[in-house]
Amino acid sequence: MTSPAADVRPEPVHLVIMGVSGSGKTTLARILQTRLGWPYAEADEFHPQANIDKMTAGTPLTDEDRWPWLAAMRDWLTEQARAGRSTIVTCSALRRTYRDVLREAEGRVRFVHLTAAPDVIAPRLDHRAGHFMPPSLLPSQFATLEPLADGEDGAVVVVDVPPEEVADRALAALGIASGPTPDAAEGGARG
């Protein structure tokens, strides 16, 4: 007979890789997905076409544009948590109010805030191909950015080293060991 305690699964953890465009969110998320084996989704996948059209035209999004996008991500995180899966999701999550929406998801939501000076980020955007976010919107992102505050579950990681080292820093700061977890076998990419 199995004891009730043996049937308890650990609470799923959702790592939200946050920061301005060009900070390395996708690169870090892919490395962490490889190391941890957790399902991974890009915030861009949750944008309605109207948001993509605005950003492509160089128009910053308003809060009204962002609420449905954030709610869709929150709902995906909850869906994964109900299936017992920890996840990784990239999201600018520039304001605390945006992060508050994501924190409503079931499971433990933790943030990894990737940071660097604008003069480090801007050249990355200039050399990035195939993305709808134009470099001209970077100043508005820095103006909107509210860094993680005391009491927010997460870590700030400076992206001044190669991506694998950024991943090492992030995992160490969060106290997460590399290597697939039991729920990884049940996961997969969003789709």
Features:
disordered C terminus; Rossmann fold; ATP-binding; 14% strand; Gluconokinase; alpha/beta; 5 strands; EC 2.7.1.12; five-stranded parallel β-sheet; single chain; 191 residues
Structure overview:
With 191 residues, this protein is of the alpha/beta class. The protein has one domain: Rossmann fold, CATH 3.40.50. It is built from 7 helices and 5 strands; from the N terminus they run βαβααβαβααβα. It has a 5-stranded parallel beta sheet, with helices on both faces. It is globular and about 50 Å long. The C terminus is likely disordered.
> What do we call the CATH topology?
Rossmann fold
Instruction: Write down the Rg.
Output: 17 Å
Q: Into which percentage range does the β-strand content fall?
A: 5-15%
Weakly predicted, low-confidence segments: 182-191
What would you say the CATH architecture is? 3-Layer(aba) Sandwich
- The separation of the N and C termini measures 38 Å
- What's the β-strand tally? 5
Mean pLDDT over the residues:
86
Number of helices: 7
Helix percent reads 25-40%
Under CATH, the homologous superfamily reads: P-loop containing nucleotide triphosphate hydrolases
State the oligomer.
single chain
Structural class: alpha/beta
Q: Please state how the strands of the largest beta sheet are arranged side by side.
A: 2-3-1-4-5
SSE sequence, one letter per element: EHEHHEHEHHEH
> What's the CATH class label?
Alpha Beta
Q: What is the approximate shape?
A: globular
GO molecular function, one term: gluconokinase activity
Family: Belongs to the gluconokinase GntK/GntV family.
Catalytic activity: D-gluconate + ATP = 6-phospho-D-gluconate + ADP + H(+)
Protein name: Gluconokinase
